[in-house]
Amino acid sequence: MSTDSVTTTSAAAPSSLEATPASTPAPQVGEGTRAHAADLRRRLIVCAPLGILAMILSMVPAWQFTGWQWVVAVASIPVVTWGAWPFHRAAFAAGRHGSTTMDTLVSLGVISSTLWSWWALLWGGAGMLGMRMHMSLIPRAAHAGHAEIYFEGACMIVVFLLTGRYLEARARYRAGDALRSLLRMGAKEATLVSVDPATGERTETVVPASSLQVGDLFAVRPGEKVATDGVIVEGSSALDTSLLTGESVPVDAAPGDAVTGATVNTWGSLLVRATRVGSDTTLAQIGRMVAEAQAGKAPVQRLADQISGVFVPIVIAVSLLTLGGWLLAGGSVQAAFTAAVAVLVVACPCALGLATPTAILVGSGRASQLGILIKNAEILEQTRSIDTMLLDKTGTVTTGVMSLESVAVAPGAGSSPEVDEDSALSLAASVESLSEHPVARAITSGASDRGLSLEPVTAFANQPGLGVVGITAQGGVLVGRPSWLASLGIDVPASLLEAVREAEASGASAVVAALAPNLGSAASSSPESAAATPEAPASITLPGPDAELPLATLTMSVGGMTCASCVRRVERKLGKLDGVKAEVNLATESARITLTAPHSDEELEAVVNAAGYHGTVTSRSEAASSDGAPAAGGNAGGDTGTPTQPGTTPGAGEREGAPASSLVIPERVEGRAIATLVVRDTVKESSADAIAQLRELGIEPILLTGDNEAAARHVAGQVGIERVIAGVLPDGKRDTVADLQAEGRTVAMVGDGVNDAAALAQASAKGLGIAMGSGTDVAIEVADMTLMNSSLTSAATAIRVSRRTLRIIKENLFWAFFYNVLMVPLAIAGLLSPMLASAAMACSSVFVVLNSLRLRTAK
């Protein structure tokens, strides 16, 4: 139990470390779009009833009371001024710079319809009391000898367009729902830890997470979210990173490991130093990346913009020619004006303007929902021509984590009993369980997967680069290189050596386990006899008499906890007992308790119950003593890990908490090799399916790796890749990409490491660079896309979603052009009233938006 005094307060306390001022807070993604949508909605709520009133009174003679036209005129005023103000403002701003936009056509249509109607009302006879108008979708010359008014047309132009623009703004905002949900999942509060430099006393202060500064220390209790990006200073745990990566398996975290804000601490207590805050955090960077992609323009959109820039002046010219043509042909002024206004309104290329950005917004939003971050819109078009995908092996096709592949046992020799696979694996895993080496973890996990129990280990040592040694009830167990075992005098049978050679030839790693029954007897050797040995080759230290050994490990269910302060209260209460260390998990409502002094279950439960909670011990495992017997009447199969003796340092790769010693290993060890254990980097479960999906998309997968040919071929065979390029250095990877590009191929590169950065950059120049989210910062920085869940199937999904987005863009553009080609001639011929033209134009815009929203279900 730590001797630091911990105090929790609600006021801010200064950190003892020098902190860098916090950076700008993370931006609120989509807030501007939401405000714009809300503004359009307010205008629509006011204008829609007024517009509908104007339309009904203008088209239903039975409801046309005396003076109805003046009511319509007054009702139209707020619609054509305040309601249409966004269009007028945009048109005026463009006109000041000598250009035209789609809003120019809308503004001209509304203003001309309104001015004509006021002229007809005041001077054209339409203002006479008793005037009647009849419903007419096709314009007429006049009604009852009076000029026709188009207030309803001007109003409905505004209403239809406000509806379309509102749906567009809402689609923009909804496209970022997944991202905003992710950003909202960040921690709201943090437990700031400040340390008194004089006394070492720690003070904990609950502060807003946004107030943390670079260099601040903060605590993360079990079940809490990491407040911001940082590095673990103290404690070990497993972090649930599914929020960012989609991976459901928690990731182990230990001192020195980097942690990401918003990930969830599942078990142990952590002390973290903040390294990035505010807008510099990973979450904020993801937000900016998605926002930049949504704001970007694909080449096809820039083409549409250029067409719109030429199209608007042409439409204005066609409208004027229509007006002049009708007059020259002997048509009435009203008929000429109606046709000219209808051309202005129906030809407005709003659908053309919406075709690309709406699809990009929805497509990139859906991609982020699937864990795919797209840097800019140009990437969408690049995916169309991708025909080759280079895949890095380690961390991309494989997990980058070793797993046990096989166990080959040696036959019994002479009177030595034959050892089977399970017993050999159990012995090796018992010793390797105290090491942090990747091979050791693979062996331990392999034993766990087979449901094997581990032997208590009473002494342990690590020989860096060679192997490990442990003392069990069966004597000494050595696991390591065959050459190391041979140097100790242990004979390794030819069958085991052959298994090692075959494993290494196929790119796997192999170690040999040996059993030395008499090695454990050296535990009784005295320090004096050890000192008398002039040249002791290696030593294992056993716990000294003053070492504090754990007597038992308990699991307790703790009911009634509602917040992080409850967790700290339970930990403090239990920590006041001598020799008790507790780690409480709020999420699972449980506590893991380690005892170095005897305490009964009832005593521990009483302490928790007295604190106002309900504690029940659900399991208790007694630890073994140093001589291998159960401690304190415990179970020989209990917890075997013991704390490191003060003043000793675990060996390289040795797990902190392993037993320490002063036992001498003789120059020669009497023992025999019992098994070869083969471990290999595991192929991801999704890789084979991903390769099949890439082929369905017409993309040839190629494995590109710096590993040897045998290892690469083995992996390629498992996932179905036919072409392999192995033994390539980082510069060689870049050159390989360039060579394929020179052959006329459009190349995508998928990688995760610093050694892939150059190749990713080369691929991005003329193709596509895709980084795995578990990769290094430099790889993610140079890539065009980032796959946050690190599954290779996401690469195929990214191509599929991008290509579907591009297809939707093309569909939108087709229908936008088709609409204009169909409707403009009808308007020129005088077969469309301005109101019907505005309805048709708005419907085309709504169609484009709805078509784009189909991307929300893309997979």
Please describe what this structure looks like:
- The protein is α+β, with helices and mostly antiparallel strands.
- The chain folds into 6 domains: 6-27 and 184-280, Calcium-transporting ATPase, cytoplasmic transduction domain A (Distorted Sandwich); 31-175; 288-364 and 802-857; 367-399 and 682-800, Rossmann fold; 400-545 and 645-680, Calcium-transporting ATPase, cytoplasmic domain N, CATH 3.40.1110; 552-622, Alpha-Beta Plaits, CATH 3.30.70.100.
- The protein is built from 27 helices and 29 strands.
- The chain has a 7-stranded mixed beta sheet with strand order 1-3-2-4-10-5-8, with no helix packed on it.
- Helix 3 (85-96) packs across helix 4 and helix 6 packs antiparallel against helix 8.
- It is elongated.
- It starts with 5 loop residues before the first strand and ends in a 6-residue tail after the last helix.
List keywords for this structure.
single chain, 859 residues, alpha+beta, Calcium-transporting ATPase, cytoplasmic transduction domain A, seven-stranded mixed beta sheet, 44% helix
Order of strands across the widest beta sheet? 1-3-2-4-10-5-8
Percent of residues in beta strands? 15-25%
CATH topology of the largest domain: Calcium-transporting ATPase, cytoplasmic domain N
- The assigned CATH architecture of the largest domain is 3-Layer(aba) Sandwich
Based on secondary structure, the structural category is alpha+beta
Unreliable spans: 1-27, 141-145, 522-549, 624-663
Oligomer: single chain
Helix count from the secondary structure assignment? 27
- Overall pLDDT confidence: 75
Computed CA radius of gyration, to the nearest angstrom: 37 Å
Helix content: 40-55%
Q: Give the name of the CATH superfamily of the largest domain.
A: Calcium-transporting ATPase, cytoplasmic domain N
Query: Total strand count, please?
Result: 29
Biased composition (Low complexity): 1-27, 523-539, 623-633, 641-651
Pfam families: E1-E2_ATPase (PF00122), HMA (PF00403), Hydrolase (PF00702)
Protein name: Heavy metal translocating P-type ATPase
Subcellular location: Cell membrane
